[in-house]
Write a structure and sequence with these properties.
With 354 residues, this protein is an alpha/beta fold. Helices cover 32% and strands 16% of the residues. It folds into 2 domains: 4-54 and 89-273, Alpha-Beta Barrel (TIM Barrel); 282-347, Type Iii Antifreeze Protein Isoform Hplc 12. β6 (130-132), α6 (140-147) and β7 (153-156) form a beta-alpha-beta unit. The protein starts with a strand and ends in a 26-residue tail after the last helix. The relative contact order is 0.12.
């Protein structure tokens, strides 16, 4: 499977999982909060900070009829779409300051664009990748325009059918862009663990042939760590500087300490997964001495027959391997042997020859 390069980071089966902290609306309208969030994201150990680039006018209409009022059992019921996005937007003039600080700290920074003008603006900032949000996966013209820039395109698939994913991938391919990453996502805020369906990560990878990952809205770090065990190469999670911040996304976001725990859990999971091998490590080799082997179980006189009473398979592993035991029964010792002696083939009388 081909590696994908985002800025100076390589996403592949051989490199560490790429961990994205999604800022979204969690700046609460303060540039200083946004910048301090970048610093905290770095301290927490993430690889990347992701923004969202839109204005309420580029993402919806200023309209208050039943089509534009949220009433679907979400955290934002009662608001109009325009009011929600006006409150949640990251002002475009902040993007440069945020990216400059991220660059200075060694963090990757990119964004989710929601229309062509956002892509044009992000191109001016030399953003290294584009993330297509779940609810934009049907916007084929937007996907084609993003893919035409020749940079990696990451898809959240929260509301996508298999056919939708095929169409999105084909839109990239028409622009000769195969730098694609597919993220399993459950479009619920917060999402329930029982709705995560993390096995879909394996399916995304095998069906489409691209690296897969998780854009997570569940609480805590369990789902992301399980996703990594299933082969996720990218994990995205919402970040908030402090849970006291008033934000539309606060209930399903992690603060610095929680995010650091997420990063630690993922890195520990990577260590535990290791690699597929039957080669013994140093500790296992040392502990082989605690395995079984053949020992003299009672004093044996020279010439005595060997049997199940006087030689046995016991711990430790300093004697002859137990596989030889059945063949030794009925043979004779060629010397006196004391109980507790590791057995050797040298202690067996040679059978007579003609």
């Amino acid at each position: 499977m081909k590696a994908v390069k985002i800025a100076d980071r390589i996403i592949s089966d051989e490199t560490p999982v790429f961990i994205i902290a999604e800022l979204s609306a969690n700046h609460s309208g303060s540039l200083e909060t946004a910048l301090e969030s970048v610093r905290a994201i770095k301290r927490a150990g993430a690889d990347c900070i992701k923004l969202q680039t839109y204005t309420p006018d580029t993402i919806t209409l200023k309209c208050d009829n039943e089509h534009f009022r949220i009433n679907h059992g979400t955290l934002w019921d009662g608001m109009t779409l325009y009011d929600l996005y006006e409150q949640a937007q990251t002002p475009w003039e902040w993007h440069k300051d945020i990216k400059n600080l991220a660059d200075e700290l060694g963090l990757v920074c990119f964004s989710s664009p929601f229309d062509r003008s956002a892509i044009d603006y992000l191109e001016e900032l030399n953003m290294p990748a584009y993330k297509i949000a779940s609810f934009e996966i049907h916007d084929i013209p937007l996907i084609e325009y993003a893919a035409s820039k020749g940079k990696p395109v990451i898809f959240s698939t929260g509301i996508a059918s298999e056919e939708d994913i095929v169409m999105a991938v084909e839109a990239c391919n028409r622009q000769s862009n195969e730098q694609i990453i597919l993220l399993k996502c459950t479009s619920a805020y917060p999402a329930k663990l029982e709705d995560a369906n993390l096995r879909s990560i394996v399916d995304l990878r095998t069906k489409f042939g691209f690296h897969a990952g998780l854009s997570d809205h569940t609480l805590g770090s369990l789902a992301p760590t399980v996703a990594v065990a299933l082969g996720a190469r990218v994990v995205e999670k919402h970040f908030i500087l402090d849970h006291s911040i008033q934000s539309a996304d606060e209930p399903f976001s992690l603060d610095e300490n929680e995010f650091k725990q997420l990063v630690d859990d993922i890195r520990s999971t990577e260590k535990a997964l290791g690699r597929a091998t039957f080669e013994l490590g140093d500790d296992a080799k040392k502990n082989q001495k605690f395995g079984r082997s053949i020992f003299v179980a009672e004093d044996i006189k020279s010439g005595a027959l060997l049997n199940a009473s006087n030689i046995r398979s016991v711990r430790p592993g300093n004697g002859l391997p137990p596989k030889y035991l059945p063949d030794l029964y009925g043979m004779r010792a060629n010397r006196d042997l004391k109980k507790g002696t590791p057995f050797s083939l040298d202690y067996v009388a040679k059978p007579p020859t003609d």
